[in-house]
Amino acid sequence: MGPLGYDTNDLPQVGRSASDDVLPAEQGSRASWIEALGMQATIYATPAVLQYAQMSEQVLHPGAPGRMASFLHERSPAGPEFHAFRAPNVDTLYSNAWVHVGAEPVELRLPAFGKRYFTVQVVDAYSNSINISARTFGAAAARYWLVPPDWSGEAPDDVTVVRVATAIIWLLLRIQVLDGDLDVVHELQDQVTLAGGAPGGDLGPVVGADEVEEDWRAFYRAFDAVLRLNAFPRDEWVHVRQFRALGLLGPTPWDPAALDPATAGALERSFATAQTLLRSSRPQLGVATGTGWTRVLDKGAHGHNFLARAVMNHVGLGANVAEENTSFNTHVDSTGQKLAGRDGPHVLEFAAQPPHTAFWSVTLYHAETGRLHANPVHRHALGSAALVGDGGPARLVLSHADPGAANWLPCPEGEFYLILRIYSPGQEVVAGSWLPAPVRRGAGAADDL
Prior knowledge:
Jelly Rolls, 3 domains, six-stranded antiparallel beta sheet, 19 strands, 24% helix, 22% strand
């Protein structure tokens, strides 16, 4: 049986109302209605707002380190002080650029990367992603034109055209670091160039990344800016049009002062409720595998699964599509107990290393914050590029104190979680026939050390 529903475009008896929705006049009923809409709006807008806040901090804020259509390069791997977004990887150097795509193409030039892993993730305003990588276009030096969906020009033979969905796009470049060869990676970063793009101009209000998670007014100012800059997919109109009751989609920028007290109070409450929901839902990211791990699905391609999309971006912005980087995460051990250093040590063993054509790594994060754990050996991940061993079976020891094991991954005394990333995953990983083993804990694990 096909999907439920039918096309109404050619049915004359289905009207198209241009009127505003009815708002309940009674304050209690109005508050209940606005709280329901506010929850939906917060969940829908979370990826776009978090991205807008990053753009704001990086290129719009007075004194910001970057500018539009120019790459801002991280020169060292992420550490505990990294706060651009949660759950960063530590295997690559990040570079990112924000581009305002206009009527004319934006040209991206890449050098030859050889066998080194790289990807330029092209992210639209609502976190949908495509990749320019060895997997999709090869690793040779190349030119790419980033153009809007309706662009109808002609490109030179040596240019690859990449169509992007929204006016504001985020380019997230990752280049693998091998044996600490930062100088080589820096040279590659500096050879990546951008040319073109619409003028930055007044792109909207300046907001902070922390502010939009704490202040409902900052969140909705950012959401209003996103809508004005990028609009939204036409097939989501039936969902988004109801947000007009919140003061959005109007002829002038959203203004909290224009809301009546019942509406403002209800929006504030619904925003707080949504933030609590997102925080509590982080461990549910993906589908359970039966081994304590969840496999993160639909990364960068959530479609209309708005809650999953919001949770994914609340855990960490810029998640790559599964074909480029398949991810698993776990907050629990083999018995279902939450991972915590005070209950360790813990052991994670792979009888056979994760199938890949690039590399894999396991990274450890604080459960509450999603940040990396500061530790005396400055080690935040272990994987195929950093394990002590011959590339066969892999055994990682997770412990707060040094256990004297070769492959020690330090963890905090409190709760933590793990992300397994498999870059350029093997077909059995993509198909779901390969799964990571559960994490073992406590005395049973310690006996093996």
